[in-house]
Amino acid sequence: MKILHASAEYFPYIKMGGLADMLASLTKEQAKTEEVYVALPYIGGLGKSPQWTGREYPALLPNDAKTDSLVVSILKNSKFLEAEESGVKLYFFQSDLFQSLNSVYGHAEEHFRFAMFSYACYALSQILKVDVFHAHDWHTAIALTLQKDSANPIPSVFTIHNLAYQGDHPFWMTGFLKEEPFRLITSPFDHDGKCNYMKAGILSADKITTVSPGYREETLSEPNGFGLSYCLQQRSGDYRGILNGIDSEEWNPNKDKRIYKTYSAKDWKEGKLKNKTELFKEIGRPSLPLDVPLVGLIGRLTHQKGFPTFLQAFSERRHLPHRYVVLGSGEPEMEKTFYYLSETFPDVFYFYKGYNENLAHKIEAASDFFLMPSLFEPCGLNQMYSHNYGTIPIVSRVGGLKDTVEESNIPSYKTGIVFEPNDAGSLGYALERAKDLFGSQERDIVVKNIMDLDWSWKKRKLEYDLVYTKAIELKI
Ligand code: ADP
Ligand code: GLC
Question: Mind telling me which NCBIfam families this protein's record contains (predicted)?
């Protein structure tokens, strides 16, 4: 089967969050048995230099090249450059629209830039004559509508990674979608008076997936449908939740070159101790105690991640012996608060502001617990990375977190600690339980349980195969 994915992110070239990791790990597994292609924007700030093959492909279909509008001329001057990575063919969309960008999101004119990228992805799918076209999140959703309206529609799948981001813009900004080469009727994408790209994807794709069964259920009603639950309900028969897998090679404490000392389920205690000692030295806090729970937190500092709940619990449970290492960047207010805590309580709290892939691995290896206080979480990857590193996750009972972490009363089934979202009391009590678990023999059992878990794509990839087959059947 020939599969073309269209995405704004792909690790290690463009990573802003979990989408990059999810897609890189899924396609690596798919490439073992299928022909897998990924279309990506070619931004100036790529995280790695691609291995170019020298082959190039147009970004405009010949039939659409006849008029000479601004949009058509931009696409004429754009192209895809082919590269290879772990058996996957990557197609970088080279265009003035993206070339000057250091990061893929957060710039003006996103509605235009991503619609143009979406058209180019659609064109590429037709040129490569793929069997399945798989688009991810709102950035590539317009491609699904083009596919649906095409004379030769390719079976299509839309994966929702996060409904909080929908790409909705005032209609006056998206008038170009009615012109060549789009020729779209945009009134069905109207949501709250705006042209909503996420809605376009939901209405147009043959099959829809999201990244965990738990989140699928949550999105079928409000508030987690972010206003689009009615749309998802309409398509519920075509909508599945498939839990993300992870790259268990990249996130393997036994092979990880980014951490201070590799370790396995046999020597995790020594491994963690060494990693903790070295991390404390590296962050300039060598005298932090080693015999109390170290709690790691990593993530985008946004509303979704629920950090204020943690901050409240932290201030309410000052008697706890825990130490905290936080890595993240995002909302300035949150950054300021974490910075303040780091300066005020240097013997308890450390904050690194920014994005740092190496430090993320080091924190996973050094921490005893990993805290994810999300208000909602489509899947979440760090709880699964934590399992691999013998780091016990403490998570809120939402979305993919509740699907992957279980606080069973039976120690041999326990894979973490779970609390209620947006509830500092519940989170605080979870931190208390973490303290008890840290000093108990039960911890050995829990660490063994979690390091034995297999979150790789090996089996879960088959669920996507099934969705692809069903999408193909619809077109026969
Ligand atoms: P989301 O996609 O909502 O941000 P996920 O848990 O799916 O959440 O994935 C986030 C990914 O990004 C994880 O691999 C996490 O380690 C990584 N990450 C987030 N913030 C940072 C950061 N500041 N430095 C390094 N890695 C980060
Ligand atoms: C999104 C979600 C996150 C998920 C990731 C990969 O960014 O916020 O929960 O793990 O996509 O699917």
Answer: glgA (TIGR02095)
